[in-house]
Design brief:
alpha+beta; four-stranded antiparallel sheet; 4 strands
Amino acid sequence: MIIFSYIHMENRTMEIEQIKNSILEIRGMKVILDFELAKMYQVETKYLKRTVRNNLKRFPSDFMFELIFEEWNNLRCKFSTSKNTGGIRYLPFAFTNWRET
């Protein structure tokens, strides 16, 4: 039982670190990009984006925003995303920490 508790605590610590490492500051707000959020929820990014788009009325207006090309271009080197191979087809959504007070 002690070993299980230790492993569970280790996994929880890794999850918290993953979340902390995923938080970026864009437009003066703390955000998590759609592909990082999708990874956390273990879904494909396209399904996360589709679900959000289909349910926009359920979220506050400042819940998220789509990055502009210049913002994404500035972040690309952080993620080592290549222009020509792989990468993303659409600009990412940035989900804000709108519940923070």
